[in-house]
Hints:
This protein is of the alpha+beta class. The protein folds into two domains: 3-46; 61-160, Rieske Iron-sulfur Protein (3-layer Sandwich). It is built from two helices and ten strands. A six-stranded antiparallel sheet has the order 1-10-9-4-3-2, with no helix packed on it. It has a four-stranded antiparallel sheet with strand order 5-6-7-8, with no helix packed on it. Strand 7 and strand 8 (135-137) form a beta hairpin. It is elongated. It binds FE2/S2 (inorganic) cluster (FES). FE2/S2 (inorganic) cluster (FES) is lined by residues 103, 105-106, 108, 121, 123-124, 126, 138-140.
Amino acid sequence: MSDSTISDLTNIGDSQPARRGLLQLGITLAGACYAGAIGYPVYRYLATPARRAEIAEGEITTVTVAANGLPGPGTATIFLFGSRPTLLIHHQDGHYVAFDAVCSHLGCTVAYQPENHRIFCPCHGGVYDVNTGAVVSGPPPRGLTVYHVEAKDDHVVISKV
Ligand code: FES
């Protein structure tokens, strides 16, 4: 054999581990892509409706209430912000406030009581402030989540702060 032939054989022997490593890397990457392509739709399919609602809810940051859905002065309405009930109060002086209507105690839906000037939870008697959503009395551990409200001419825009 000539020197060049021996040298060529040596080079072939040295490149095999590199080729084998590259092949293993390619197989690993292809496997990861395959697992992701199969796993993600399965995860989405198996996700609970509550989890799917959370995902969808997280994507909704603004709700517009049209004129025909707006409460008159001194009244309130409840609408869905994603999947969560939301309380929109129209005060006598014309300004609006909006709160997540889920009680922070055990999750009952609260109600506006204009005659008592309070937001009331019928489950265990929790009372919240009509302007701030802060706890006034009862078992709720914290106030209601406050939303930002922007009144326009013929509609109101409620958004997460
Ligand atoms: S759930 Fe509202 S006070 Fe208990």
